[in-house]
Amino acid sequence: MQLLLCLSKPAQHLKKNPLMAASGSGSIMWFRKGLRIHDNPALEYASKGSDFVYPVFVIDPHYMEPDPKAFSPGSKLAGLNRIRFLLESLVDLDTSLKKLGSRLLISKGEPGQVLIQCLKEWGVKKLCFEHDTDPYYQALDIKVKEYTSAAGIEVFSPVSHTLFNPADIIQRNGGKPPLTYQSFLKLAGQPSWLSSPLLTSISSLPPVGDVGSCEISEVPTIKDLGYGDIEQEWTPFRGGESEALKRLKESVSDKNWIANFEKPKGNPSLFVKPATTVLSPYLKFGCLSSRYFYQCLQDVYKNVQKHTSPPVSLAGQLLWRDFFYTVAFGTPNFDRMKGNKLCKQIPWNDDDELLAAWREARTGYPWIDAIMVQLRTWGWMHHLARHSVACFLTRGDLFLHWERGRDVFERLLIDSDWAINNGNWLWLSCSSFFYQYNRIYSPISFGKKYDPNGNYIRHFLPVLKDMPKEYIYEPWTAPPGIQRKAKCIIGRDYPKPVVYHDSASKECKRKLAEAYALNQKLNGQLSQEDLDSLRRKLEQDEEDPEPKIRRQRQKVGHLTSQDFCKTISGGKRGRELMSILDFIDSGWPSLEA
Ligand code: FAD
Prior knowledge:
mainly alpha, 6-stranded mixed sheet, 26 helices, 4% strand, binds flavin-adenine dinucleotide
């Protein structure tokens, strides 16, 4: 285990607080992520030799307070589902701390300022918190450490959010992050902590000291944060360490399932009992230790005859997590295209209407829209479902910037994780890690393969619940009588497709081929001017009637039957569709309502 320790002498000018003596040898345990008791080396160290321990969590208004301008209920940075998940996790942590003779102290404000205030007020000698590689925490930690080093406060900040210390791996690789999973595995080897059992329980904690004049409260409710009475469908996943350990226990008790786990096999349309563990939100907030999870998996593997291996095994998934943490930590501007050495420079389109259609589940492709509803209501979707919608938004159909999709995920996912989310969006948009842009997920046949009856769609898009299975993935092809019977008129009750997949995906491939060629020619050093002129060229080719590929992108919600069917190459099916949609476009009174 890597421990980051820094200790320095107090500066002469810092006056002693009168409460210092009263606190004796006190320490602060600063919870940020790592919202757990098990395998929490920072908490363990905070309590060692301390008369008092102050377990603190700071509510950052930026992260928690309502932002009425945001596109979904929630704060500026997080959707309400995730905020609620966090509050539940804090309540659970407080309950566990109380059982150990302590409690969680909730304070509010800019976390750095609040913490420094607490350090001054309580006169503690030790500050303990889990090391965090996210840029937000890196900046915050610099600020706090400046104060502690001047004040002579010991800081203990162990790496326990990941299996490995990303900085170690980068150092072993000559200062650069490994860029492939296999090279990461080679450098990482076996985690050093694996040879000795992790501390999974604590019998008691030192009491909380006098809090002086610091404003401390109980864990707030959603209402306390100013959200009023919110009526929305909440995620079925409850936050907290207790729930995390329960879920983990359920997963590892099925040894056969663990031994045979193989991603990307698995059905993305299962939602009553999802095909994967749904432990990601718990790992995100550190309600579950990834190291403990990994150790439990090793215990199962030891007791079965045969099991899958990385990258496809469940342990392999945790290693993917560490891989992305390492690359993200070692790559400047990892979360954007510009200035990111790993990212192909691609002239993505900017189209607010199309983006809103995707975000609000109005693309007209039920598979895509159902996934986007699951994102909004549950804040969690299966990995391959995420693949489908990310591919559709970027290189598959809409050719919109991966950063726009990343932002939507970042807000709405309950497992939203800076390194993993950015890493996967880079991957899915063929901007980095994965470059086979000709392999596109069909928004029609991919989901159908797993769920021919469309049960997943019927659940998340009840407007389509009575659509016969023949049409559930392409409802615009349903004859008018069938649409009427299903009480779902396409263009009125459910949108027409925003683009025609076959031609849109061809367009995307053509654009990516050109962008890749230019990236290669200029060795990835594309200026804004290069990108703009490539964009102009691509648009020109698109509009020119001569190039083989006709412009197919239509204004959202205005794809007419003529436009649509012209894209279908002659055959019987095309003609059938033409007459059906002609009928829809013309006479039907309420269709365009
Ligand atoms: P399981 O299959 O049970 O895997 C166990 C754990 O392994 C997960 O909880 C997760 O921590 C880790 N893991 C699994 N797959 C990956 C992966 N591809 N990359 C890194 N770690 C992985 N995952 C997040 O946790 N947060 C995100 O913000 C996030 N954004 C994503 C965005 C896109 C576009 C895509 C395609 C994937 C994203 N993922 C993200 C990765 C993955 O989809 C989720 O981790 C996984 O679906 C969570 O479900 P689970 O816990 O049941 O996974």
